[in-house]
């Protein structure tokens, strides 16, 4: 077994806990955000622990799929609420999706030993951590919180028919420690 190499510049750990201050006053969106925060946290810890590339790609794939679902739901709620910045928000969603796809493609294109992340170069590792961080801070905190004054006009559990909510399920295989 190899012990992890000493990194002279350890990646900064970043942790965001969902709390009421992050609520956009809509239960369906809040539930999605809680789950996205957990997924991002899981991916970050895989990177920091230098878990296998296989585990990382499974987690990134899950993030991509859930993000797609969440963005669709969030935009449907915005549309039903008459949110005036829908176009802008949609473009921001498209950019986030593209950034995640590009970075995932870059990771998969590397000629690395798939049993370890040690072969990921520092730049890729840092870019991935910083993308995840900007997802949380820029998307959930800065952009989505602008929805709150708009959504406060509706009951918290308001969920228009075209935006079915899927509560996060905690039965994913990577959530269970081996
Ligand atoms: Fe969101």
UniProtKB/TrEMBL annotation:
This is Hemerythrin-like metal-binding domain. SUPFAM superfamilies: Hemerythrin-like. Residues 158-178 are annotated as: Disordered. It comes from the Bacteria. One of its GO terms (molecular function) is metal ion binding. It comes from Tepidiphilus thermophilus. Belongs to the hemerythrin family. Keywords: Iron, Metal-binding. Residues 27-151 form the Hemerythrin-like domain. Signal peptide: none annotated.
